[in-house]
Amino acid sequence: MSQSLRTCLLIGPLILFLVVCYLLPFLGIVGWSVTLPDPGLGQYETALTDPLVHSVAWRTLRICALVTVFSVIAAYAISLVWVRGSPMQRVLVELCILIPFWISVLTRAFGWLSLLSNRGIINTFLQNIGLIDAPLTLVRNDFGVVVGMTHFLIPFAVFPIASAMRSMDERALMAARGMGAGRTRIFWQVFVPMTGNGIIGAALIVFVFALGFFVTPAILGGGRSVMIAELIYLRIFQSPNWGLAAAISVLMMLAVGMFLSALMRHLAPGTER
């Protein structure tokens, strides 16, 4: 069997899977956006001019940016302990990273709801010790959504950052130490810059993943912190307008694709920065 035929047999199922499961459904969505309810680009015009869509899109971007920042910061600290901690610390961190993967997103969202609701564990504790008189509003707003999404996405940010830390050239740290640099200076001026690719990769994964979140915002937002995925769901199942939902979906896909393309071009080897 020739090498080219073997390569085709290995790659062929993957290409077929992508075409059947992603490309064809996406083309169907594009078709709905220009045919429902009437042929034309009217739904795109509505999506680009509707104040509600603008409001939800900005809220989605704001929440995704906050979640990305908090997730990457937390993941960096966790990765640091995982890579450079003692054996016992590494085992504990591995358990903290892996166990969340065994728990569904629905279970985690309801867990946060029981913690943050008005009669939840946190408000009840704070009231019992006399720190607050009335319960704090910790859910059914952007705060609850950010907390739930950050908790879910931290493990996904850990892996690229930890990989960057493990592949670091230790001689650079030794050279900085030998030249008299303190631990704080070595960390900020040598260690962090050398893990920059891991940080960017983690931020990219978290941000793109967060854009499509549905369950956590729907439960912890309680309908008061609607994100773009929930808006698409509402346009399909509650106020049927499949054409507008399809147009919003296509615009989101294009925005994410353009963002990723620009970022990849900026980070490509040999690009002047």
UniProtKB/TrEMBL annotation:
Subcellular location(s) per record: Cell membrane
Q: How does it sit in the membrane?
A: Multi-pass membrane protein
Q: What is the organism of origin for this protein?
A: Roseobacter litoralis (strain ATCC 49566 / DSM 6996 / JCM 21268 / NBRC 15278 / OCh 149)
Q: What are the protein's UniProt keywords?
A: Cell membrane, Membrane, Transmembrane, Transmembrane helix, Transport
Chief localisation class = membrane
Please indicate if the UniProt record lists RNA-binding as a keyword: no
Q: Name one GO cellular component term.
A: plasma membrane
Q: Which residues form the ABC transmembrane type-1 domain?
A: 57-263
SUPFAM superfamilies the record matches: MetI-like
Q: Which domain of life is it from?
A: Bacteria
Q: What is this protein called?
A: ABC transporter permease protein
Instruction: List membrane-spanning regions.
Output: 7-32, 60-83, 95-115, 143-165, 186-215, 242-263
Q: Which GO terms describe its biological process?
A: transmembrane transport
Q: Which Pfam families match?
A: BPD_transp_1
**Which family does the entry's similarity section mention?**
Belongs to the binding-protein-dependent transport system permease family. CysTW subfamily.
